[in-house]
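Collaborator request log, item 7. Partner lab (contact: R.S.) asked for a structural prediction of Glutamine synthetase III to inform their binding assays.
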Amino acid sequence: MTNKHPFDDFGINLFSENVMKECLPHPVYQKWKTATRKEDALDRPTADAIAHAMKIWAMEKGATHFTHWFQPLTGSTAEKHDSFIEPGDHNQAISRFSGKSLIKGEGDASSFPSGGLRATFEARGYTYWDCTSPAFIRDNVLCIPTIFVSYNGETLDKKAPLLKSAEAISKQATRIVNLFKDKDIKHVNAMVGLEQEYFLVDKEMYLKRKDLVHTGRTLFGSMPPKSMDLRGHYFGSIPARVQAFMEEVDEELWKLGIYAKTEHNEVAPCQFEIAPLFIDANVAVDQNLIIMDVLKKKADKHGLACLLHEKPFQGVNGSGKHNNWSLVTDDGQNLLEPGDRPHENIRFLLFVCAIIEAVDTYPEMLRMAASSYGNDYRLGADEAPPAVVSICMGEDLEIVLEKIRLGENEIDDVVEPKAYAIANLSYVPKDTSDRNRTSPFAFTGNKFEFRMVGSSRSASTTNIILNSIVADSLCKIADKLQGIKYIDEVRKKSLDICRDILQKHHRILFSGDGYSSDWLDEAEKRGLPNIKCYLDSISSLSSEKAVAMFDRMKVYNRAELEARVDILTEEYRKSVKVEVLTLLDMSKKEILPALVREIKFYSDAQNSLGFENSYYQRKIKHLVSLLDNFDKQYHDLKQKMENRQQYPDNMAKAQYLNTVVVPAMTDLRSVIDQIEDAISSDNYPYPTYDDMFVSM
Ligand code: ADP
Ligand code: MG
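Returned to partner:
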């Protein structure tokens, strides 16, 4: 980025709409555009023409291979590279990329989780181009975003359901907008902006900690005394290599057409945040997955390790992935923007109430959708939202909603000015939007920010669920309004609907301090679920009400949901298992010998004196008692881990791990943390929290 303008290369590695406009014959471009709007299917000659243009474009930029880039249920991304090369006449290599290769790929799906959806005799899986998300080039490979399905068409990935949920919400939101008869629109897009938090640590130190390498978090480590007070020390200025890292991350993301803004975050030592501009939900999820990958690779290049785990360090703030979400019509109206005109405000209220109803009807599912095992260590601790889902509308809006709930705004005649006082919200200053950072789900002026979401996961599930549940609410509302002839009647009925929803669901509204223990008591009184462990939320995905809702919205069928519950449960078991095995291994091979060395060190010192020294005696006694305790906790964990075999099925095993093994891990950790405090630096085998924080 020397003499050139830093943004000169923006989007050069993206086969964007502009590129398509330029390099495709206009009728082909038009057909693609129609296909992205789902108004018509893409025909073969069009696909061939796009594939050809894509290949030429990619090869000019040095690409030699292409891949169908997809998002299996592991939560990360997968790709299988094929080169463009094919044998031509006379032993000459030619390049070829057909419309068929662009649209459809076929491969062995058996290495990806399917939760029983893919019968063993049918190991193939198929990938299909998502023509709404642009192809891009990374490391000389043309990456084509695709969905991934089984032979029978069941979805095996996280993209297909997201596209379906986007379609569902578009359809229902469009119905409502058009009922207000302002101007007919065709689509409503769920727009998403994802803020990604992450930690950076020195790579050499990272490699010395097998827990970080294998599990993404430190399984032990004691907080340096006063470390949070020393924050200023850690954050004097951005260290040069972090600065260089961030510049390269931005540069690469800009080339991929991602509007990234990296910023230094002062919340916790070594923690940072990157947030690109919001965009259509499916593209936002794709971009976030790319961002996570770029962060990891660039960090590695700069002698750093990027930690995307929700809670790499106990006692220090965790990392989230704030999911900012709004609904925008094809003519650019944000449906969550309180407008200046009365009818817009009734419409705004209707959308807000649909969201209130959706969130209060499916809080367990949202809690699940925001989480993974790692988020269990973040939620409810050190400046992170609690595990109770609630909505913060901000005090001003809450007053308005409360008036509607109590029927204080009966509008007999919508033309009467006093009625507008509430209905048009004109006295609600728009920028009083919430700065309440303690809420898991907050209205922030013209969007909702879901802050419970953990940093390590794909944001796909979060948005699939958000889109689907809100679509379902909107559908019910649209059904009630359908057929009403006069616009004034629509408005009046809309307010009735809002009142009904608020009377039923106002318990979900809370604009106070979400971190306080008072709120947890209050939430319990209100009957809001407080699901402390992620595992306990997983089965909400296949509850009867969820199955029925997803079926109505045509997003998942029962088999697909049950498969997902199975996969998530198994994934939970694997995560815990890796942690336990890693902790036991580190304990036995390094912590124990370190402690023994320390005991010997003091024993030798005592022996060399020739008379009893009370300090040495006390020290030895303390170390030996730690040794006993360590021995006990170590074997306790080991035994409990072995006992899991007694449980026959996936969920029973997982529950056992959750209630018995995870607490045993915590117990062993607490002894190890005491050992770390007790032994000399020379003898301690691992970089400590302090070492890692200061190294940056
Ligand atoms: P914060 O105050 O939490 O840092 P910002 O205003 O910086 O929030 O925005 C955070 C994210 O929200 C960004 O990715 C931004 O693009 C996105 N965002 C802004 N407006 C919208 C919207 N209408 N819909 C969805 N996301 C949005
Ligand atoms: Mg935020």
